[in-house]
Amino acid sequence: MADETALQNLFEDVCQTLAHAGFDIASTNADDRTGLRVHREPDAVSVGWVPTGELDPAGRRDADYEGIRTALRQALLEILTQAGYAVQADRSNGEVRVMPT
User: Fold this and answer.
1) Whole-model pTM?
2) Which of 42, 77, 97, 100 is the most interior residue, by most CB within 10 Å?
3) Cα 33 from chain centre
4) Strand 86-90 and strand 45-50: pairing?
5) Are 22 and 75 spatial neighbours (Cβ–Cβ below 8 Å)?
6) Are 13 and 26 in contact (CB under 8 A)?
7) For residue range 51-76, what is the model confidence (pLDDT) as tens digits?
8) CA–CA gap between residue 73 and residue 50 (Å, rounded)
9) Phi and psi at residue 45, in whole multiples of 5°?
10) CA neighbor of 41 nearest in space, from 19, 14, 21
11) Do the beta carbons of residue 45 and residue 14 sit within 8 Å?
């Protein structure tokens, strides 16, 4: 398990790196829970994306946005790797995990 302070610092650094790269990070307190989400796990920081209903006004249940998720995951991997973070794609949930070094 990662040190709590180190993990909090990593979380803040990842948020700042993504903000400098031009990403808007949705607040974890946002009611709609959509947008780019950064959250702490016990041993890493995860970055994922939740689409807004405006992408699919018809509200199709089968809309999975796999193309957008793949492009975003690749962009996140590139940006965070170039910034010096240890990253890996978690294909099971579409998120990118950032591990402490």
Assistant:
1) 0.83
2) 97
3) 13
4) unpaired
5) no
6) no
7) 877 676 676 666 677 888 889 999 99
8) 12
9) -115, 135
10) 14
11) yes
